[in-house]
Amino acid sequence: MTEHDDLDKERDEKMARIEHLNNMRKNMEEFQLFNSEYSAEIIKSSAMMLRTTFESLVQAGFSDSQAMEIIKARGTNLLGY
Fold first, then answer.
1. pTM (predicted TM-score)
2. In the chain, where the domains are located
3. pLDDT, position 3
4. What does the alpha-carbon distance between residue 56 and residue 43 come to, in Å, rounded to a whole number?
5. Do 57 and 70 meet the contact criterion of CB atoms below 8 Å apart?
6. How far apart are CA 5 and CA 8, in angstroms?
7. Beta carbons of 70 and 62 less than 8 angstroms apart
8. How far does the chain reach from its first CA to its final CA, in angstroms?
9. What gap in Å lies between CA 50 and CA 54, rounded to an integer?
10. 26 Rama class: left (phi>0) / alpha (psi -120 to 50) / beta
11. What is the pLDDT of residue 7?
12. 62: part of which helix (H) or strand (E)?
């Protein structure tokens, strides 16, 4: 092999490494986007469930403040505080 061939091989290896790193970066960005969208859906679902629970408690005769206290107490209970 000539010195020129060695330089070509080294350049090709560096380019392959750069391509690999770029692919990893793209995969991480796609994962972060998916994770953000998934998290947003979970938050949206949780908000809907809280709203439904709140409305049900109010329909059952609890005041707004009582309903909120029940929801907070239940959340605290679920989190172990």
1. 0.61
2. 3-79
3. 77
4. 20
5. yes
6. 5
7. yes
8. 70
9. 6
10. alpha
11. 86
12. none
Residue 67 CB neighbours (<10 A): 19
The residue type at 23? N
**pLDDT value at residue 79:** 64
Burial class of 78 by CB neighbour count within 10 A (0 to 12, 13 to 18, 19+): exposed
Instruction: Please give the Cα distance from 59 to 7 (Å, whole number).
Output: 77
Asked if residues 68 and 57 have their Cβ atoms less than 8 Å apart, the reply is no
Q: Which stretch of DSSP H or E encloses residue 12? A: helix 3-59
43, 25 contact by CB (below 8 A): no
Q: How far apart are CA 43 and CA 51, in angstroms?
A: 12
- Alpha-carbon span 43 to 61, nearest angstrom: 27
pLDDT, tens digit, for every residue of 1-44? 687 788 889 999 999 999 999 999 999 999 999 999 999 999 99
Element at 60 (helix H, strand E): none
